[in-house]
Amino acid sequence: MALLDTVRAERLAKIEGLKAAGMEVYPARTLRTHTNAQFLENHATLLAAGESAALAGRVMSLREHGGSLFVDLFDGTGKAQIYFQKESLGDAAFEQFTLLVDTGDIIEVGGGAFTTKRGQPSLLGASWRMLAKSLVPVPDQWFGIKDEDERYRKRYLDILLSKDLAERIKRRSAFWNAFRQFLLERDFIEVETPVLETTTGGADARPFKTHHNALDIDVYLRISVGELWQKRLMVAGLPKTFEIGRVFRNEGMSAEHAQDYTALEFYEAFKDYEAGMEMIVDLYRGIADTVYGTRVFTVRDFTIDLGAPWERYDYCALIKKEFDIDPLSATAEEVRSALTSRGIAFEEKGFNLERGVDLLWKQIRKTLGGPGFLVGVPVYLEPLAKRSHSDPRVVERFQVILGGSEMGKGFSELNDPVDQAGRFKRQQELREAGDDEAQMNDADYVEALEYGMPPAFGFGVSERLFSFLEGVSIREGQIFPLLRPRPSGARQD
Questions:
Q1: What is the pTM of this model?
Q2: What is 2-132's CATH topology?
Q3: Which of these, 7, 38, 220, 223, is most buried using a 10 Å CB contact count?
């Protein structure tokens, strides 16, 4: 800490030196003519024409060689080499640069295209000025920040020093844009639905609660990307909608779970889950092709080929085979006994058939590689899906299975208001019995259904899919993951 304080003091003194030389230290404007990428791409043309250029970026390294200086300048598009000579820059400007500029500073350099003796395209600097003086040194780009917590706290440095991480952020953007383009090409319209809700819906999850001062009411942050709102829009006569947005769930953290994350949900009227499955196969293959240029991914101990035929997994059959329990007829006590006999931990508070059966399934899920669809889920596990016409004990729901995880969910949407009201009532009973993740009774949504909603298919997927395809945790796949704050006044440098 003492060393850092010394460095900061030295750099603050250099600011005074820059001001004394008549230089603005943090100017608002730059005279840059080319990005580094543009300069390097057009270097031969600029050199042949003798045209000048102005570059701007962060000083990543400084190398002095006699009366010359080599500077690596980074602007986010690439790294350009700047070559300074005393005779071309001038003695005063050269001396000011050597005395007052440090690695980490953001500068502007004007000059002409130049090729070194080793054949490296460079800019021969004829002028320079400061754009932003850094007060603390940037960590060595070769060693970076090794402590994981510190990497997340100083993510801006982690990104600066890691080309791979910067490229991941670009792929993250391409990932969501590929979803958006897929849907826009099929005449979906993008919508925005409320983030603050008086009743949460669309998922089994514990919400965050806050207080709305103007209305003097408690409200919740949404736990789905507007599922019940988008289905209201189908009542309103909009047959194809989608939304990409932030979701908030006040639950545990793991390699696959975060408390706030990006997700997509879309809804299409007059389509069922069978047609939806065909659509999802095309969608996932398209995402893989567009973002990664391959359909084959090796994650954990699985190699998944999205281009291969997708399997069908039957939920009840898998559980019956593994635990000798039929989810369609089992009692909560039978499920409890099965969990106990296998040494599977569960919460006593709010324990019920729904949560118990789900725990059994999660033991099986991690063994399935996919790609495939999980089907045949009991009605009591899905309050928002339509019953199967061939077996009303299960719903027309599927989950995408990839590498032992669930990577998306879709179903034929329940549009029977009487059935929906009954299922919400059951969810409310579970909440009152202590199940904090049971869904809330949304009477306003049921009223909307009473006006008539067409049969429809809905689907949702989160950034968990992106982190899976990247082969990293969801935390590592996020740009700025949430962290516990340091104690007041604490600082680590």
A1: 0.90
A2: OB fold (Dihydrolipoamide Acetyltransferase, E2P) (2.40.50)
A3: 223
